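subagent[fold] <- orchestrator: predict structure for attached chain, return tokens only, no commentary.
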Amino acid sequence: MEDLKSETEMIEEFLNTHSPELREELILRYVSLIHFVLGRLGFNPYGGIEYEDLASQGMLGLIEAVDHFDPSFGTRMSTYATLKIRSKVLDYLRDLDWLPRIARQKVRSMQEATVNLEHKLQRLPTDEELATYLNLGLDELAQIQMDSSRVVISLDETTSKLGSEDTESSMHEWLMDEQQENPSDILEEKDMQVRLVEAIKALPEREQMVLSLYYFDELTFKEIGKTLDISESRVCQIHGRAVVSLQSLLNGETVTRKRGRPTKPEHVKRKNTPDLSTPPAHSMIDRYR
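subagent[fold] -> orchestrator:
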């Protein structure tokens, strides 16, 4: 409580005085968020991109957060700064187009195939069905699923609000939109909350587990792999598949059935992992409000 009060007082003083010394102190106070964000994004050095390059972009996002933060946003500085850092890093990676174009095309083809099969089968397709539809081997499909996770096609990716053509934003930014006061916007958000929870419940249990450990418990792919006793690349694949499935479900008319009945690993018992069999009191939406 003392830390929160100290943070609040420091921010209020900076807003009143615009002191360069306080500005620098605030930046140093939150600089660890840059490493936190980069760690959770789980990027490897693709295409000659160095960690320092991403950290520099994260610093720009942090500075922007400090310079533009307003208590009326209704969120803590640390939350706002995290979103700004993440946004700046992802924009940088998008501009670089660091995944080969052919790989991007394959990811998009997999997304379209998932949507088409989901509509045709009235359930999420299995990997075998996806591979057959795309005329691919399972190993090649697994690589595309891993690419889909790395290519910023995740809950952080720019995505339309249930198909709206004129409103696009980061999923994380939209979930904690601090300026949303219009009643119709609030109703739309509540509807999205319900649909997101229902869509997550439609995923196989292992995919639910990976999403929960990544977005709730904030583990990296490597840490999730150790928790579930699987490889980091397998976690990346599962995450990519789960997110593509969520996109298909959220953009469809109905929430369909699961692919099958995967069993939950007996050794995985995390008290902070929510039960998605019923709408949770604190859903993934609430985590970012």
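orchestrator: received. Logging for downstream: Residues 101-287 form one domain. Strands lie at 158-160, 168-170.
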